[in-house]
Design brief:
A hairpin with a 2-residue loop joins strand 4 and strand 5. 24% of the residues are buried. It is globular and about 50 Å long. The termini are far apart. Helices cover 27% and strands 19% of the residues. The longest helix is centred in the C-terminal third of the chain and has 17 residues. It has two domains: 79 residues, no CATH class; 84 residues, Alpha-Beta Plaits (2-Layer Sandwich), CATH 3.30.70.670. Helix 2 crosses helix 3. The strands form two sheets. Strands 4-5-3-6 form a four-stranded antiparallel sheet. The chain has a two-stranded parallel sheet with strand order 1-2.
Length: 186
């Protein structure tokens, strides 16, 4: 397969494109769904590592058709900013976290521009892991409150949610601090 000019293919890793990087604009969630990312592949309702298959269920856009256990696959995309925000739910019941996630997500009739899934997170704790596709429209505070309400309806408590990376605002703030520091040194 010939690599797009912006994909480095020497690494020999199956590469999937999404968003504006893909000719049809497919979503990262659709790639993950096709690869089985949302289906547990280990004990305890958890997902670990590369797909357990000698060939991939959907052909990559670049690279080999077979993933290596040590390298897995890579997805490269161009999309608007997405915040990743997770809310711990104090229960070992993964099915309860999945019900909450479904009700929070736009796909399940919940908050607009929110994708969510319920996951095992550790001993006695699950979490609702969310992609906030338009954080200016629906932010972490709204997600936190909705997860809290839905969990309470099931007699469950939640912990304080957290960003899995810097929020858009924090990223801009850090960039501006760096730019100001660079300017003051010149």
């Amino acid at each position: 397969m010939i690599c797009p000019h912006y994909v480095h293919c020497d690494a020999a890793v199956p590469t999937y494109l999404y968003g504006a990087a893909h000719k049809d604009g497919r979503t990262l969630a659709s790639i993950r769904r096709q690869l089985g990312y949302f289906t547990p592949n280990s004990p305890g309702e958890q997902w670990r590592g590369a797909p357990d298959s000698s060939s991939l269920p959907v052909a990559p856009d670049a690279g080999p058709a077979t993933p290596s256990r040590s390298k897995g696959v890579v997805a490269i995309g161009a999309t608007a900013w997405v915040d990743n925000y997770n809310v711990p739910v104090h229960t070992a019941d993964v099915a309860a976290a999945k019900r909450i996630a479904r009700a929070v997500s736009e796909r399940g009739g919940g908050l607009r521009s929110v994708q969510a899934m319920g996951l095992a997170h550790g001993e006695g704790v699950t979490e609702v892991a969310c992609n906030l596709l338009d954080p200016a429209r629906v932010g972490a505070e709204q997600v936190q409150e909705r997860v809290r309400q839905l969990a309470a309806e099931q007699g469950l408590a939640v912990g304080e949610g957290y960003f899995t990376d810097f929020s858009q605002e924090r990223t801009v703030e850090l960039y501006m601090q760096s730019a100001e520091a660079d300017a003051s040194q010149q």
